[in-house]
Amino acid sequence: MGLGLLVVCLGIVMTSCTAHLEMTSGNEEVLKVVRSLQERFENLEHLVHENKRFQEAFVLHSPALSDQMKTKDKKTPNDKSFLLKRGPGSSEEVQNAESTCTFRGRDGRDGKNGRDGKDGKDGRDGINGGTGTQGPPGPQGVAGAKGDMGKAGLPGKDAAGGTVYVRWGRKTCPSTSSLVYEGIAGGSQWNEKGGGGNYQCLPRVPQWGKYTDGIQQLSYIYGGEYEIFTNSPFSKALYQQDVVCAVCHARARSSQMMIPGWKKCPARWTQEYTGYLMAERYTHHRSSFVCMDESPETNPGGGKDTNGALFYLVEAQCGALPCPNYVSGRELTCVMCTK
Fold first, then answer.
1. DSSP state, 129?
2. Alpha carbon distance 36, 28 (integer Å)
3. Is 258 helix (H, G, I), strand (E, B) or coil?
4. Which of 336, 327, 315, 317 is nearest to 262 (CA)?
5. According to a count of CB atoms within 10 Å of the terminal CB, is the N or C end of the chain lower?
6. pLDDT per residue over 161-193, tens digit each?
7. Model confidence over 54-74: pLDDT tens digits?
């Protein structure tokens, strides 16, 4: 505030001196010096004025400093304005320090980026989306190894039909079938030319119709005997014992077959029992081949060597029968299968 007033006063003095020298002749050199000084004071006045404007702009951006300045510099009505005489007939109104102005400097440089903030907490799980469209089927996998054959199932309770077979050498049926009846084996006598050519499983108690007692020399049927000597594949002695049998019903299956030379049934067939192939002796009259169970039973009271229908083990003979795989003189196995 003091510096500004001093500059204004010096400006008034320099203006008065210039006016006096102009009216007096012979002072041209002094007048040049005074005018040079007057120009320098005018420049100083301009700098003081610009400095004041900068201070006012700074105060406007700093409220605390503005309050300080207001408290320090209180003005009186006489300080608001005054007239300066700068020459004949000219006047200028100069504003004091309370004049309001706005001064804005250049924008400062951008500050450096701050540090990255801490990671936020994980959000909650979103709602499950709907089921997508089913994709195309994948390629077919490699076929697995063939599994073992399962155990035979129990016979069905309400199945209709079924198949019937004879279990030679046993009085009962396997668990896969039900017993129709238990009997004794019979057939034509070994040395008679006539009669039937196959074995029969006769019931233990016959049911008679009309009959005539006595021998009329018609056709005859005899009981069967095991004709097994040494090297028997069976676990007990059977020589000249009477042969038993059982008729069995496989209710849940409609087909049956006896396979000579095998001990197991084909896939998807049920094995009823396994054993050895038997028939009449090759020098006797012909009969049928049957599968005798591998664990045969006998009829109580037998063993009397009454002959009749006889059962011999069947051996392979090479020739038209290829050897190998068959072996001459070896007893053949057999198996009963149903499906």
1. P
2. 12
3. strand
4. 336
5. N
6. 899 999 999 999 999 999 999 999 999 887 777
7. 666 655 555 554 555 555 444
